[in-house]
Amino acid sequence: MSGTLYGLGVGPGDPELLTLKAARILGSVPVVAYPAPLEGDSLARTIVASHMPQGVTEIALRMAFDPAKRADDVYDAGAEEIAAHLTAGRDVAVLCEGDPFFFGSFAYLFARLADRFPVSVVPGIASPMACAALAGHPLTARDDALVIIPAPRPEDEIERLLGQTEAAVIMKLGRHLPKVRRTLDRLGLLGKACYVERAGQPGQRILPLAAVDEGGSAPYFAMILVHKRGKAWT
User: Fold this and answer.
1) CATH number of the domain enclosing 196
2) Which of 8, 107, 134, 135 has a CB 3.0–4.6 Å from the CB of 22, allowing a cystine?
3) Does residue 231 carry a catalytic annotation?
4) Is there a domain that residue 165 lies in?
5) Could you tell me the sign of the dihedral formed by the alpha carbons of 196, 175, 41, 108, in that order?
6) Is 172 among the catalytic positions?
């Protein structure tokens, strides 16, 4: 009998946001895999460090975190290494920041392995939920529409999407921050936007978007929350 592949959402950064189910599974599996930069520590592993069992086999999927580039070779190799453990009957937990199926890296392993092995996905707290809670910024109320916009999309598309909704979360800011800031300003939404950087992690920053340097960049783990009414409950 083959092992089970677990996709564990570990939340956006605060170790206390790890779910009880994810912690239980993590404590029982013999193999744990996680995305990691080419050098340095994995954020996903850092989040769950206190729950990692002794003697577990670790698989670090090291890749360059560039949203503009695919990492198919890394996922191909990682999937085969994981598959070898599953074939041998060993369960494997794959850690994923936030939620596995919300812009999660686990989805690429799921696509390669789900037709060959049993899979169980454990949802995690997604970054928009954590950012909204930390910033005191309710995302929606009543019958509001909410759109999730990746910042690398073209400026005219971001403007079009913002024009069709009451509330928005703009993610993956990085070098796209000036473009997004400019678009919100043009739409009269700059004063209604909140900027959250590294939610729940060391170095967390929360401030009005208008107070952020308009010519600067942002980390990948930063987002903007905006509501056209300013406050969702009004």
Assistant:
1) 3.30.950.10
2) 8
3) no
4) yes
5) positive
6) no
